[in-house]
Amino acid sequence: MSLSHTIALAPLHAAIRRVVRGFGSGPAEVEAVANNLIEANLTGHDSHGVGMLPRYAEAYLEGGLKPNTHVTTLLDAGALLRLDGNAGFGQVIGQEAMALGIERARQHGSCILALGNAHHLGRIGAWAEQVAAAGLVSLHFVNVIARGIVAPFGGADARFGTNPFCAGVPITGRAPVILDFATSIIAQGKTRVAMNKGEQVPADHLIDDQGRPTLEPRYTVVPPFGALLTFGAHKGYGLAMMAELLGGALASGMTQRDNDSSQRRILNGMFSVLVDPARLGDVAAFEQEALAFIDWVKASPPRAGFDAVQVAGEPERARRAERSAHGVAIDATTWREILEGAAKLGVDPAAVEADAVLHSNSPRGSK
User: Fold this and answer.
1) Contact 244/163 with Cβ under 8 angstroms?
2) CA distance 344 to 297
3) The whole model's pTM is what?
4) Is 70-184+230-323 a domain of CATH 3.30.1370.60?
């Protein structure tokens, strides 16, 4: 297992802002990208956090990521919108797309939003949180245009991406319920993090380049490539296919159809449904019923090995509070890759390190 560094929140923001400025991004974009990536780390989703910057740098240098780009509207039919992300930073495109969807859902009671050609949208839960903060329910189906990394149920090689699904339900006076997961058994970025830490992955998560079970995370990171498996066997596979058909074929007109690893860009299509619960009926009655169910579920006595029953979104909020107070642990390999990515962007790695004020820790990041 590799050494890790713990970086306090303010220095981490300063360091990541410096790296993002290397893309030529304007101030607002720098803030959007840095905040989104660090928020992913804070919530415990390191797979979608600052460790993505080296991949973004490679995509930018190849021309597959377009900084300072904004969403454009291809179809405006009131409560039905089709948008193009123009290969812009997903952290900007996602926020702009959801803002348009929120406006229309408030106006019409609902909005169906089809977004295509956005560069990596990051943690999809961020967009459900944005919608929930506006008091709206949302569903999101996302496809991935990049090298295939997930095998279909019963298949021996990769045919599509991690294709996440996300849903958000707001409740007045309570934190929203946010469900956000990859349809692969784990996110691809988690295998990158595991490899960088020198760790193995659990059994029944991966197959190697011959279609055989393996514990080695390298098979989704460096060639020869194997594949992740879907969660829940045929169930995750079926949901992944729906994400490809809705987020890909329907929303963006682009589906995953090859395993080309020569390009580093990551393009997402997202099919989103936003609904104003107040326009469906008595919102107070809805929330009362929702809270009654949540309280009923959480009252279940925890079984051995569990502290308590939780609902979607609670683990992320607990991790956010802990990491906000004590800093974000980044393994040494990932940090080195970030510095190398900064150098490729013309940013002085020494200045990034000076911003970060590193503290080296044990492999688990404890002091």
Assistant:
1) yes
2) 50
3) 0.94
4) yes
- In this structure, what token pair is assigned to residue 271? 């099919």
Letter for the amino acid at 115?
L
CA distance 6 to 365: 6
The confidence score (pLDDT) of residue 2 equals 65
The secondary structure of 138-206 as a DSSP string is: EEEEEEEESS--BPPTT-SS--B----EEEEEEETTEEEEEEEE-SBSS-HHHHHHHHHHT-PPPTTSE
**Exposed, middle or buried, 209 (CB in 10 Å: 0-12/13-18/19+)?**
middle
Q: Nearest Cα to 338, choosing from 57, 44, 23, 30?
A: 57
Residue spans of the domains in the chain: they are 1-68+327-358, 70-184+230-323
User: What is the average pLDDT across 126-139?
Assistant: 98
Q: How many CB atoms lie within 10 A of CB 34?
A: 24
DSSP state of 302: P
- The predicted-structure confidence for 326-361, as pLDDT tens digits, reads as follows 999 999 999 999 999 999 999 999 999 999 988 777
Q: Are 190 and 40 in contact (CB under 8 A)?
A: no
CA distance 25 to 33: 9
The helix, strand and coil proportions of the chain, stated in percent and rounded to the nearest 5, come to 45, 20, 35
Q: Which run of H or E residues covers position 214?
A: strand 213-214
AA letter at 196: N
196 is written with which tokens? 């960088």
Q: What is the token pair recorded at 311? A: 């609902």
Helix (H, G, I), strand (E, B) or coil at 328: strand
Please tell me the distance from the alpha carbon of residue 254 to that of residue 301, in angstroms, as a whole number.
Answer: 46
Query: Prior bond to 302 cis, omega within 30?
Result: no
- β-bridge mates for residue 140, sequence order: 166, 272
Q: Which tokens hold the place of 90?
A: 């997903």
1-68+327-358: CATH number: 1.10.1530.10
